[in-house]
Amino acid sequence: METTERIKKTLAEHAVVLYMKGTPQFPMCGFSSRTVKALKAVGADFHAVNVLEDPEVRATLPRYSNWPTFPQLFVHGELIGGCDITLELYESGELERIVKDLQKA
Fold first, then answer.
1. Residue ranges of the Glutaredoxin domain (predicted)?
2. Which of 19, 32, 50, 73 could be bridged to 27 by S-S, CB 3.0 to 4.6 A?
3. What is the CATH number of the domain that holds 59?
């Protein structure tokens, strides 16, 4: 399966997807670690993809999403953003609202 198709399939199968360096248990960069902490703090149920273990996704996703860095957070297939945006949403309470809305659906 082509890499872009795998990305689309992952985004279709999970409401919240975090493409990150490392895993939620063992993040391999500070930005990924802070993003995971924000998601866990609001009780988000999310699917994580370790881009360090999948060089094709790591190379393709920035072109697909038009976002150059990792982590990348998607909700319902839409790019929310990276670490800075996720933390801004968390601090404003918006991330928690997004997660609560997903849990109702």
1. 16-80
2. 32
3. 3.40.30.10
Has 21 been labeled as part of a binding site?
Answer: yes
Q: Is 74 annotated as a binding residue?
A: no
CB-based contacts of 97, cutoff 8 Å, min separation 6: none
The 10s digit of each residue's pLDDT in 7-53 is 999 999 999 999 999 999 999 999 999 999 999 999 999 999 999 99
Sheet holding 16-20, edge to edge: 47-50, 16-20, 72-75, 78-81
Is 70 annotated to bind a ligand? Reply is: yes
* Counted domains in the chain: 1
Residue 58 marked in a binding site: yes
Q: Tell me what the pLDDT averaged over the chain comes to.
A: 96
Ligand-binding annotation for 46, yes or no, is: no
Question: Residue 76 corresponds to which tokens in the numbers above?
Answer: 């319902």
Q: Which domain does 53 fall in, by range?
A: 3-104
